[in-house]
UniProtKB/TrEMBL annotation:
<dbReference type="Pfam" id="PF07859">
    <property type="entry name" value="Abhydrolase_3"/>
</dbReference>
<protein>
    <submittedName>
        <fullName>Alpha/beta hydrolase fold-3</fullName>
    </submittedName>
</protein>
<feature type="domain" description="Alpha/beta hydrolase fold-3">
    <location>
        <begin position="130"/>
        <end position="350"/>
    </location>
</feature>
<dbReference type="InterPro" id="IPR050300">
    <property type="entry name" value="GDXG_lipolytic_enzyme"/>
</dbReference>
<dbReference type="GO" id="GO:0016787">
    <property type="term" value="F:hydrolase activity"/>
</dbReference>
<feature type="region of interest" description="Disordered">
    <location>
        <begin position="1"/>
        <end position="23"/>
    </location>
</feature>
<keyword id="KW-0378">Hydrolase</keyword>
<dbReference type="InterPro" id="IPR029058">
    <property type="entry name" value="AB_hydrolase_fold"/>
</dbReference>
<dbReference type="InterPro" id="IPR013094">
    <property type="entry name" value="AB_hydrolase_3"/>
</dbReference>
Protein backbone atom coordinates (compact mmCIF):
# COMPACT_ATOMS: atom_id res chain seq x y z
CA UNK A 1 0.00 0.00 0.00
CA UNK A 2 1.24 3.48 -0.72
CA UNK A 3 1.01 6.84 0.95
CA UNK A 4 -1.37 8.98 -1.10
CA UNK A 5 0.31 12.33 -0.34
CA UNK A 6 3.75 10.87 -1.05
CA UNK A 7 6.49 9.48 1.13
CA UNK A 8 8.46 12.10 3.02
CA UNK A 9 10.96 12.02 5.86
CA UNK A 10 9.52 12.83 9.28
CA UNK A 11 9.59 16.48 10.28
CA UNK A 12 12.78 17.21 12.23
CA UNK A 13 12.08 16.82 15.93
CA UNK A 14 11.74 20.20 17.66
CA UNK A 15 13.23 20.84 21.09
CA UNK A 16 9.90 22.14 22.35
CA UNK A 17 6.28 22.39 21.27
CA UNK A 18 4.86 25.66 20.02
CA UNK A 19 3.58 26.11 23.57
CA UNK A 20 7.08 25.79 24.99
CA UNK A 21 6.80 22.29 26.48
CA UNK A 22 10.07 20.31 26.11
CA UNK A 23 10.40 17.58 23.48
CA UNK A 24 13.17 14.97 23.63
CA UNK A 25 15.16 14.05 20.50
CA UNK A 26 14.46 10.70 18.90
CA UNK A 27 16.15 7.94 20.87
CA UNK A 28 16.69 5.41 18.10
CA UNK A 29 15.19 2.83 20.42
CA UNK A 30 13.54 2.67 23.82
CA UNK A 31 14.18 4.98 26.74
CA UNK A 32 13.89 4.09 30.42
CA UNK A 33 11.72 2.83 31.97
CA UNK A 34 10.89 0.70 28.89
CA UNK A 35 14.50 -0.18 28.07
CA UNK A 36 14.88 -2.26 31.21
CA UNK A 37 11.95 -4.48 30.20
CA UNK A 38 12.91 -5.27 26.60
CA UNK A 39 14.27 -8.68 27.64
CA UNK A 40 10.72 -9.73 28.60
CA UNK A 41 9.42 -9.59 25.03
CA UNK A 42 12.55 -9.77 22.86
CA UNK A 43 11.97 -13.29 21.48
CA UNK A 44 8.28 -13.23 20.60
CA UNK A 45 7.17 -12.94 16.95
CA UNK A 46 4.83 -10.34 15.56
CA UNK A 47 1.12 -10.96 16.11
CA UNK A 48 -1.02 -12.12 13.20
CA UNK A 49 -4.55 -11.76 11.91
CA UNK A 50 -5.31 -15.18 13.38
CA UNK A 51 -4.13 -13.98 16.78
CA UNK A 52 -6.41 -10.95 16.50
CA UNK A 53 -9.39 -13.15 15.64
CA UNK A 54 -8.76 -15.29 18.71
CA UNK A 55 -8.14 -12.38 21.07
CA UNK A 56 -10.20 -11.84 24.19
CA UNK A 57 -11.49 -8.25 24.01
CA UNK A 58 -11.54 -8.11 27.81
CA UNK A 59 -7.82 -8.91 28.08
CA UNK A 60 -5.30 -6.09 27.64
CA UNK A 61 -7.65 -4.04 25.47
CA UNK A 62 -8.14 -6.87 23.01
CA UNK A 63 -4.43 -7.63 22.72
CA UNK A 64 -3.90 -10.33 20.06
CA UNK A 65 -1.58 -12.66 21.97
CA UNK A 66 -1.48 -16.34 22.90
CA UNK A 67 -1.12 -17.28 26.56
CA UNK A 68 2.68 -17.18 26.88
CA UNK A 69 3.04 -14.00 24.87
CA UNK A 70 0.14 -12.40 26.74
CA UNK A 71 1.88 -13.09 30.07
CA UNK A 72 5.04 -11.44 28.75
CA UNK A 73 3.10 -8.44 27.45
CA UNK A 74 1.28 -8.01 30.75
CA UNK A 75 4.70 -7.84 32.46
CA UNK A 76 5.89 -5.38 29.81
CA UNK A 77 2.82 -3.19 30.36
CA UNK A 78 2.76 -3.38 34.17
CA UNK A 79 2.76 -0.11 36.10
CA UNK A 80 6.17 1.51 36.46
CA UNK A 81 5.18 3.24 39.67
CA UNK A 82 2.31 4.87 41.49
CA UNK A 83 -0.28 6.86 39.53
CA UNK A 84 0.39 10.57 39.57
CA UNK A 85 -1.74 12.52 42.08
CA UNK A 86 -4.79 14.18 40.55
CA UNK A 87 -7.51 16.54 41.74
CA UNK A 88 -10.76 15.77 39.97
CA UNK A 89 -14.44 15.21 40.56
CA UNK A 90 -15.78 12.30 38.51
CA UNK A 91 -19.35 11.64 37.39
CA UNK A 92 -20.65 8.69 35.36
CA UNK A 93 -23.57 9.33 33.02
CA UNK A 94 -25.35 7.81 30.07
CA UNK A 95 -26.01 10.07 27.10
CA UNK A 96 -28.68 9.53 24.46
CA UNK A 97 -27.43 8.07 21.20
CA UNK A 98 -28.80 6.67 17.95
CA UNK A 99 -27.97 3.09 19.02
CA UNK A 100 -28.93 3.41 22.67
CA UNK A 101 -27.39 5.01 25.75
CA UNK A 102 -23.71 5.99 25.58
CA UNK A 103 -21.76 5.69 28.86
CA UNK A 104 -19.47 8.62 29.56
CA UNK A 105 -17.33 9.71 32.48
CA UNK A 106 -17.10 13.44 33.17
CA UNK A 107 -14.01 14.85 34.89
CA UNK A 108 -13.92 18.29 36.47
CA UNK A 109 -11.33 19.87 38.76
CA UNK A 110 -11.93 19.67 42.50
CA UNK A 111 -13.44 22.85 43.97
CA UNK A 112 -10.62 25.12 45.05
CA UNK A 113 -7.99 23.31 43.01
CA UNK A 114 -5.60 25.74 41.29
CA UNK A 115 -4.26 24.00 38.15
CA UNK A 116 -0.57 24.61 37.44
CA UNK A 117 -1.26 25.69 33.85
CA UNK A 118 -4.89 26.80 33.84
CA UNK A 119 -7.08 27.05 30.81
CA UNK A 120 -8.14 30.73 30.57
CA UNK A 121 -11.55 31.29 32.17
CA UNK A 122 -14.31 33.45 30.75
CA UNK A 123 -16.18 36.00 32.85
CA UNK A 124 -18.66 33.20 33.55
CA UNK A 125 -15.79 30.96 34.80
CA UNK A 126 -15.98 28.67 31.75
CA UNK A 127 -12.83 26.90 30.56
CA UNK A 128 -11.87 24.64 27.68
CA UNK A 129 -13.39 21.19 27.36
CA UNK A 130 -12.22 17.94 25.80
CA UNK A 131 -14.25 15.01 24.46
CA UNK A 132 -11.87 12.03 24.63
CA UNK A 133 -12.00 8.56 23.03
CA UNK A 134 -9.86 5.65 24.28
CA UNK A 135 -8.13 3.12 22.02
CA UNK A 136 -8.23 -0.67 21.82
CA UNK A 137 -8.28 -1.69 18.12
CA UNK A 138 -12.02 -0.82 17.98
CA UNK A 139 -12.70 -4.06 19.88
CA UNK A 140 -11.31 -3.43 23.37
CA UNK A 141 -10.76 -0.81 26.01
CA UNK A 142 -13.08 0.93 28.44
CA UNK A 143 -13.45 3.98 30.68
CA UNK A 144 -11.22 2.44 33.37
CA UNK A 145 -8.11 1.88 31.26
CA UNK A 146 -5.32 4.40 31.93
CA UNK A 147 -5.57 5.71 28.37
CA UNK A 148 -9.07 6.88 29.32
CA UNK A 149 -9.16 7.43 33.08
CA UNK A 150 -5.59 8.50 33.87
CA UNK A 151 -5.43 10.73 30.80
CA UNK A 152 -8.68 12.47 31.71
CA UNK A 153 -7.65 12.94 35.35
CA UNK A 154 -4.23 14.18 34.33
CA UNK A 155 -5.51 16.74 31.83
CA UNK A 156 -8.26 18.06 34.10
CA UNK A 157 -5.78 18.39 36.97
CA UNK A 158 -3.19 20.18 34.85
CA UNK A 159 -5.56 22.65 33.21
CA UNK A 160 -8.85 22.93 35.09
CA UNK A 161 -10.58 21.97 31.84
CA UNK A 162 -13.44 19.48 31.92
CA UNK A 163 -12.94 16.16 30.10
CA UNK A 164 -15.74 13.90 28.88
CA UNK A 165 -14.43 10.37 28.28
CA UNK A 166 -16.67 8.33 25.96
CA UNK A 167 -17.27 4.57 26.01
CA UNK A 168 -18.40 4.05 22.43
CA UNK A 169 -19.75 0.68 21.34
CA UNK A 170 -16.97 -1.76 20.54
CA UNK A 171 -16.82 -3.84 17.37
CA UNK A 172 -17.68 -7.19 18.96
CA UNK A 173 -20.79 -9.34 18.73
CA UNK A 174 -21.76 -8.06 15.29
CA UNK A 175 -21.20 -4.34 15.93
CA UNK A 176 -19.40 -2.50 13.11
CA UNK A 177 -19.01 0.96 11.58
CA UNK A 178 -20.83 3.35 11.66
CA UNK A 179 -21.94 2.45 15.20
CA UNK A 180 -18.75 3.51 17.06
CA UNK A 181 -18.58 6.69 15.01
CA UNK A 182 -22.24 7.45 15.63
CA UNK A 183 -21.71 7.07 19.38
CA UNK A 184 -18.61 9.25 19.27
CA UNK A 185 -20.33 11.98 17.28
CA UNK A 186 -23.51 11.91 19.38
CA UNK A 187 -21.45 12.37 22.55
CA UNK A 188 -19.59 15.30 21.00
CA UNK A 189 -22.84 16.98 19.94
CA UNK A 190 -24.32 16.42 23.40
CA UNK A 191 -21.34 18.12 25.03
CA UNK A 192 -21.73 21.04 22.63
CA UNK A 193 -25.34 21.41 23.74
CA UNK A 194 -24.60 21.11 27.48
CA UNK A 195 -21.21 22.79 27.69
CA UNK A 196 -21.96 25.43 30.30
CA UNK A 197 -23.47 22.81 32.62
CA UNK A 198 -19.98 21.37 33.05
CA UNK A 199 -18.02 24.60 33.12
CA UNK A 200 -17.06 24.36 29.44
CA UNK A 201 -16.77 27.29 27.07
CA UNK A 202 -18.72 26.17 23.99
CA UNK A 203 -16.20 27.97 21.77
CA UNK A 204 -13.35 25.84 23.15
CA UNK A 205 -14.46 22.22 22.83
CA UNK A 206 -11.68 19.99 21.59
CA UNK A 207 -11.94 16.37 20.53
CA UNK A 208 -9.15 13.89 21.05
CA UNK A 209 -8.29 10.26 21.34
CA UNK A 210 -5.60 7.63 21.20
CA UNK A 211 -5.03 4.97 18.53
CA UNK A 212 -8.52 3.77 17.49
CA UNK A 213 -9.84 6.64 19.60
CA UNK A 214 -7.69 9.02 17.57
CA UNK A 215 -9.39 7.62 14.49
CA UNK A 216 -12.79 8.33 16.02
CA UNK A 217 -11.76 11.85 17.02
CA UNK A 218 -10.65 12.53 13.45
CA UNK A 219 -13.93 11.15 12.09
CA UNK A 220 -15.89 13.32 14.53
CA UNK A 221 -13.86 16.33 13.39
CA UNK A 222 -14.68 15.74 9.73
CA UNK A 223 -18.34 15.11 10.51
CA UNK A 224 -18.42 18.31 12.55
CA UNK A 225 -16.95 20.27 9.65
CA UNK A 226 -19.70 18.93 7.38
CA UNK A 227 -22.35 19.98 9.92
CA UNK A 228 -20.81 23.43 10.48
CA UNK A 229 -19.99 22.26 14.01
CA UNK A 230 -16.23 21.74 13.85
CA UNK A 231 -14.41 21.34 17.16
CA UNK A 232 -12.02 24.00 18.40
CA UNK A 233 -9.03 21.64 18.18
CA UNK A 234 -8.26 17.99 17.42
CA UNK A 235 -5.73 16.32 19.76
CA UNK A 236 -4.62 12.96 18.36
CA UNK A 237 -2.32 10.45 20.04
CA UNK A 238 -0.80 7.80 17.74
CA UNK A 239 -3.95 7.73 15.58
CA UNK A 240 -5.09 5.06 13.12
CA UNK A 241 -5.94 7.57 10.40
CA UNK A 242 -5.76 5.28 7.36
CA UNK A 243 -7.43 2.07 6.28
CA UNK A 244 -6.99 1.10 2.63
CA UNK A 245 -4.40 3.74 1.74
CA UNK A 246 -1.83 2.73 4.37
CA UNK A 247 1.22 5.02 4.24
CA UNK A 248 4.74 3.86 3.51
CA UNK A 249 7.01 4.53 6.50
CA UNK A 250 10.04 6.78 6.19
CA UNK A 251 13.43 5.11 5.94
CA UNK A 252 14.17 6.05 9.55
CA UNK A 253 10.91 4.53 10.80
CA UNK A 254 11.28 1.40 8.67
CA UNK A 255 14.72 0.77 10.15
CA UNK A 256 13.42 1.33 13.66
CA UNK A 257 10.57 -1.15 13.13
CA UNK A 258 12.96 -3.86 11.98
CA UNK A 259 15.11 -3.45 15.09
CA UNK A 260 12.45 -3.39 17.79
CA UNK A 261 10.79 -6.44 19.41
CA UNK A 262 8.50 -7.84 16.74
CA UNK A 263 5.67 -8.58 19.17
CA UNK A 264 5.12 -4.80 19.28
CA UNK A 265 4.55 -4.61 15.52
CA UNK A 266 1.31 -4.09 13.60
CA UNK A 267 1.79 -6.36 10.55
CA UNK A 268 -0.17 -5.65 7.40
CA UNK A 269 -2.42 -8.70 7.79
CA UNK A 270 -3.31 -7.77 11.35
CA UNK A 271 -4.10 -4.17 10.39
CA UNK A 272 -6.28 -5.41 7.54
CA UNK A 273 -8.12 -7.75 9.92
CA UNK A 274 -8.63 -4.96 12.44
CA UNK A 275 -10.00 -2.63 9.77
CA UNK A 276 -12.23 -5.35 8.33
CA UNK A 277 -13.64 -6.01 11.78
CA UNK A 278 -14.26 -2.28 12.26
CA UNK A 279 -16.01 -1.83 8.91
CA UNK A 280 -17.78 -5.19 8.86
CA UNK A 281 -16.36 -6.05 5.42
CA UNK A 282 -12.98 -6.03 3.68
CA UNK A 283 -11.85 -2.66 2.43
CA UNK A 284 -12.10 -1.88 -1.26
CA UNK A 285 -8.60 -0.46 -1.63
CA UNK A 286 -9.57 1.28 -4.86
CA UNK A 287 -12.58 3.09 -3.43
CA UNK A 288 -11.17 3.53 0.05
CA UNK A 289 -13.14 3.60 3.27
CA UNK A 290 -16.03 5.92 4.15
CA UNK A 291 -14.55 9.33 4.98
CA UNK A 292 -15.69 9.34 8.61
CA UNK A 293 -14.29 5.82 9.11
CA UNK A 294 -10.74 6.61 7.95
CA UNK A 295 -10.23 10.32 7.22
CA UNK A 296 -6.67 9.59 6.08
CA UNK A 297 -8.07 7.69 3.10
CA UNK A 298 -9.51 10.94 1.74
CA UNK A 299 -7.35 11.70 -1.31
CA UNK A 300 -8.88 15.07 -2.24
CA UNK A 301 -7.39 17.80 -0.02
CA UNK A 302 -10.46 19.95 -0.63
CA UNK A 303 -12.53 17.37 1.26
CA UNK A 304 -10.52 18.22 4.40
CA UNK A 305 -10.92 21.99 4.02
CA UNK A 306 -11.91 23.77 7.21
CA UNK A 307 -10.01 21.36 9.45
CA UNK A 308 -9.34 22.96 12.86
CA UNK A 309 -5.99 23.40 14.57
CA UNK A 310 -4.59 19.93 15.27
CA UNK A 311 -1.90 18.40 17.46
CA UNK A 312 -0.65 14.90 16.60
CA UNK A 313 1.76 13.06 18.88
CA UNK A 314 3.11 9.78 17.55
CA UNK A 315 5.24 7.10 19.24
CA UNK A 316 8.82 6.52 18.08
CA UNK A 317 8.61 2.71 18.14
CA UNK A 318 5.31 2.22 16.36
CA UNK A 319 4.10 1.17 12.90
CA UNK A 320 1.22 3.60 13.31
CA UNK A 321 3.65 6.53 13.29
CA UNK A 322 3.52 6.31 9.48
CA UNK A 323 -0.21 7.01 9.61
CA UNK A 324 0.08 9.96 11.99
CA UNK A 325 2.90 11.54 9.99
CA UNK A 326 1.13 11.07 6.66
CA UNK A 327 -2.14 12.43 8.02
CA UNK A 328 -0.34 15.55 9.22
CA UNK A 329 0.99 16.10 5.71
CA UNK A 330 -2.49 15.64 4.24
CA UNK A 331 -4.00 18.14 6.64
CA UNK A 332 -1.31 20.68 5.83
CA UNK A 333 -2.05 20.24 2.14
CA UNK A 334 -5.66 21.07 3.00
CA UNK A 335 -4.54 24.29 4.71
CA UNK A 336 -4.88 23.16 8.33
CA UNK A 337 -2.69 24.39 11.17
CA UNK A 338 -1.01 21.14 12.26
CA UNK A 339 1.67 20.48 14.85
CA UNK A 340 3.13 16.96 14.79
CA UNK A 341 5.95 15.41 16.79
CA UNK A 342 7.16 12.05 18.03
CA UNK A 343 7.29 10.98 21.66
CA UNK A 344 10.83 9.62 21.93
CA UNK A 345 11.64 6.16 23.22
CA UNK A 346 8.11 4.83 23.69
CA UNK A 347 5.99 2.04 22.13
CA UNK A 348 2.50 2.34 20.73
CA UNK A 349 -0.09 2.96 23.45
CA UNK A 350 2.27 4.60 25.93
CA UNK A 351 -0.54 6.70 27.43
CA UNK A 352 -1.61 3.45 29.10
CA UNK A 353 1.65 3.35 31.06
CA UNK A 354 1.15 4.16 34.76
CA UNK A 355 4.00 5.81 36.62
CA UNK A 356 6.09 6.56 33.53
CA UNK A 357 7.70 10.00 33.28
CA UNK A 358 7.39 9.74 29.49
CA UNK A 359 3.60 9.48 29.79
CA UNK A 360 3.54 12.46 32.17
CA UNK A 361 5.57 14.48 29.67
CA UNK A 362 3.06 13.67 26.91
CA UNK A 363 0.19 14.79 29.12
CA UNK A 364 2.05 18.06 29.73
CA UNK A 365 2.16 18.64 25.99
CA UNK A 366 -1.51 17.82 25.45
CA UNK A 367 -2.46 19.97 28.43
CA UNK A 368 -0.69 22.97 26.95
CA UNK A 369 -3.01 22.84 23.95
CA UNK A 370 -6.02 23.13 26.27
CA UNK A 371 -4.60 26.25 27.90
CA UNK A 372 -4.70 28.23 24.67
CA UNK A 373 -7.22 31.05 24.27
CA UNK A 374 -9.78 30.91 21.50
Amino acid sequence: MTDTPGVAPPTPQPTATRDGVPVAPLAGGFLPPYAERLRLIADFPAPSAEDLAAADPAAAAGAPFAAEALTAMEAWEAAFGEPEPTHTLVEDRELPGPHGPIPVRIYRPEPGWAPPTPSPATDAALRAGLVWYHGGAFMGGDLDMPEADAVARGLATRTGASVVSVFYRLCTGGVHYPVPHDDAYAAYQWVRGHAAEFGIDAARIAVGGASAGGNLAAGVTLHGIDDDAAPWQALLAYPVAHGGHWPTPSEELAARLEQMPQILRFPTDMMAAMNTNYLGAPLDAGAGAPAYAFPGDVVDAARLAGWPATYIENCENDDLRASGEAFARQLRQAGADVEVLTCAGVPHGHLNAVGSPLTAASLDRFAARLTRPV
